[in-house]
Design goal:
Radius of gyration: 25 Å
Number of strands: 18
Strand order of the largest sheet: 10-11-16-15-14-17
Number of domains: 2
Number of helices: 17
């Protein structure tokens, strides 16, 4: 998968000068060994930071080693000033963690007091407006610290990706889809670049890609991917041409950014000019780590990208679409188990989900657009969706969004896709999330989130919550369990 950062993680020990420096160094080496034994990639920096000059030397060592994410390890109490300066001057995500005491026999001459030092380190970081990643319980043995570092990896990948991201958008939002619109200033605050373009720009680059020799190769790839689901062989050349156009634009316009995503207008005028719907191509780019959000949903594109960085697998963007009928619920009681009907909903989109995430899929025509653009005719310009049931298994729904007054907020909830036939069209599945009914009312509705939700294939709520918090988003909602009321929830 391309378009996501490679994390190169380093660990550095810090030591307060009134404690034995050897204690911190030994504990750092023990963490490094625990990581190595657990298959966790980690680089052990040899500098140990006791003062500000050490911090500057550590920055140089990290830069020479091309380290882009740093674990600052308090092997003893640690010098809160120098370690905070180190965190401030290091250009990348930083984690704070601390050593637990190993044995009662060492508490007289070998006590490190890192448990206490973490308090000072966190205060010092706050004074300098630094946001380090601090695990839920940041003090541990070598193996426990290794486990914390493993959990830091997806968080660091999200931060590195977002801070080097560019969003390419084409076209204004479709009429009656203002819900996908939000002020973009908050994204610039995160370091994200945005390049807005018109639909004419997109049409122009598509036409200029005609006859490109790569079209034949991509068409062949599509045939291999679709197999028996290739219902419209005559359409693939147009779709391949569109893919060439998008990838050329991506490669030619990254500029100062390292990674890119798209947020494109895809209807209703698109079909009349391009002669297809772009869903299948969007799904293929998502497979490569380049999400293409529908309906010019810029925040949706960033949401998908954050998921992709966290999981290193394709994400998708689905409508939180419709309720599950009672008869479908009753007919699948063995599959539904202890979920209530209000815990269920259907996630749907026209056909943008990667084939890697589908249980079965085939090229079809977009039913709603067909009734609008080609009523009573054989499908032609409305062909190009990738449709079928999305594969069952664990999922996380996630969304980053700006309010009208440019304040970032987010939600995240772990759940699952049930092995139930949706009996409908599009890329679609039956989702189950505990207490979804209350979450829907008191988060999605009450806080004006749009209908598009990012979907991660796997439970990655912990990493996404931590990464979003590290980006400075203070308001992150989740599906609260029964008995834990939302702020505006009626207690009666």
């Amino acid at each position: 998968m391309q378009n996501i950062p490679t994390v190169k993680m380093g660990i550095i020990a810090v030591s307060r000068d009134c404690f034995p420096i050897e204690l911190s160094q030994k504990r750092r080496s023990n963490v490094y060994k625990a990581c190595k034994d657990s298959g966790i990639d980690l680089i052990e920096l040899k500098t140990t930071v006791e003062n500000e000059e050490d911090a500057l030397n550590a920055i140089k060592e990290a830069k020479d080693l091309k380290i882009n994410s740093l674990v600052i390890f308090l092997g003893n109490f640690g010098p809160e000033g120098p370690l905070s300066i180190l965190a401030q001057k290091f250009e990348g995500p930083v984690m704070f963690c601390a050593a637990a005491e190993e044995a009662a026999s060492g508490l007289l001459d070998g006590r490190g007091d890192a448990y206490c030092g973490m308090l000072n380190a966190s205060i010092s970081a706050s004074l300098r407006q630094i946001r380090p990643y601090i695990p839920e319980y940041p003090v541990g043995t070598a193996q426990e610290i290794a486990n914390m570092i493993k959990e830091f990896y997806p968080v660091a990948r999200v931060i590195l990706g977002v801070s080097n991201l560019k969003v390419f958008s084409f076209g204004p939002r479709p009429h009656n889809f203002y819900a996908c619109n939000a002020p973009i200033k908050a994204l610039f605050d995160l370091g994200i670049e945005i390049m807005e373009n018109s639909e004419l720009d997109l049409y122009d680059i598509y036409n200029k890609a005609a006859g490109d020799p790569r079209i034949k190769t991509i068409k062949s790839e599509m045939e291999s991917e679709l197999k028996t689901g290739n219902n419209y062989p005559d359409l693939l050349e147009k779709l391949a041409q569109y893919e060439v156009a998008l990838m050329d634009f991506y490669n030619n316009n990254l500029g100062a950014s390292k990674y890119g995503v798209f947020a494109n207008k895809c209807w209703p005028a698109f079909e009349s000019y391009f002669g297809f719907v772009p869903c299948y191509v969007n799904s293929r780019l998502a497979t490569r780590g380049i999400p293409v959000a529908c309906e010019v949903d810029i925040y949706g594109a960033v949401t998908e990208y954050m998921i992709t960085c966290a999981t290193m697998t394709p994400a998708t963007l689905l409508d939180i679409n419709n309720s599950v009928p009672v008869d479908m619920f009753d007919a699948n009681k063995k599959i539904v188990k202890d979920y209530t009907i209000n815990d269920l909903f259907m996630g749907f989109h026209c056909g943008n989900t990667s084939s890697e995430c589908m249980g079965n899929c085939e090229i079809k025509f977009q039913k709603i657009m067909h009734s609008l653009l080609e009523p009573g005719k054989e499908p032609d310009i409305t062909r190009g969706t990738l449709e079928g049931s999305i594969r069952p298994g664990d999922v996380t729904i996630f969304r980053l969004q700006s309010t009208a007054d440019t304040k970032l907020r987010a939600y995240v909830a772990n759940g699952e896709i049930l092995n139930i036939d949706p009996q409908s069209f599009g890329s679609i599945a039956v989702f189950a999330i505990k207490e979804m009914g209350r979450f829907y009312r008191h988060v999605l509705i009450a806080k004006q989130f749009p209908h598009h939700a990012g979907v991660a294939f796997g439970h990655t709520g912990k990493a996404l919550f931590s990464a979003t918090k590290l980006l400075g988003v203070d308001e992150i909602d989740f599906n609260r369990p029964a008995g834990m009321l939302y702020k505006d929830e009626n207690p009666f």
